[in-house]
Write a sequence for this structure.
């Protein structure tokens, strides 16, 4: 009889514990989870320098905050600019038809910050699209647009300014340098 009582008690204890373990199996959030690493916050500073004959004559600065964790890349974006009207004309006999098309001018920057490497560097993938009105064609009066597009990855040491691209302007003696500084925010 004593053996039967201990078996019954063991069976009763298992029955009491069983619903909790079944609930935990059905509901993963009820199970204890490993702590996820906190995202690391970074400030990303872009400086785009315009050079003429090797000397800096103009610069533009853009700053954004983004984060990185140990699993995936995160994206930061900047959009600044205007929509400007561009006139297009066509002649139909003695009558001139003018059509207006709007173009976006300004700066678009997308950066993707990858998780840090063991030595502390971060991989930064950058896309820049810059379009501006630089004047008018003397013969037609049409606007002249300048465009710079850049895309590429760079391994960056936090706190150290890094030139990630250089671009020659094909219509002048100007060139552009793209510099980035990534700083971890404590």
């Amino acid at each position: 009889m004593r053996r039967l009582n201990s078996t019954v008690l063991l069976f009763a204890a298992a029955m009491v514990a069983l619903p909790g373990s079944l609930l935990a199996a059905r509901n993963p959030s009820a199970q204890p989870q490993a702590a996820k690493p906190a995202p690391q916050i970074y400030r990303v500073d872009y400086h785009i320098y315009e050079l003429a004959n090797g000397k800096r004559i103009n610069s533009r600065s853009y700053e954004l905050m983004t984060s990185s964790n140990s699993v995936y890349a995160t994206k930061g974006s900047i959009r600044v600019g205007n929509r400007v009207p561009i006139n297009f004309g066509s002649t139909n006999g003695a009558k001139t038809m003018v059509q207006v098309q709007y173009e976006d001018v300004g700066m678009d920057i997308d950066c993707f910050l990858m998780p840090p490497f063991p030595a502390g560097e971060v991989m930064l993938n950058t896309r820049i699209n810059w379009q501006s009105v630089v004047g008018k064609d003397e013969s037609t009066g049409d606007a002249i647009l300048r465009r710079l597009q850049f895309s590429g990855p760079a391994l960056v040491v936090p706190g150290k300014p890094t030139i990630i691209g250089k671009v020659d302007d094909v219509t002048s003696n100007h060139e552009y340098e793209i510099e980035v500084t990534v700083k971890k925010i404590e």
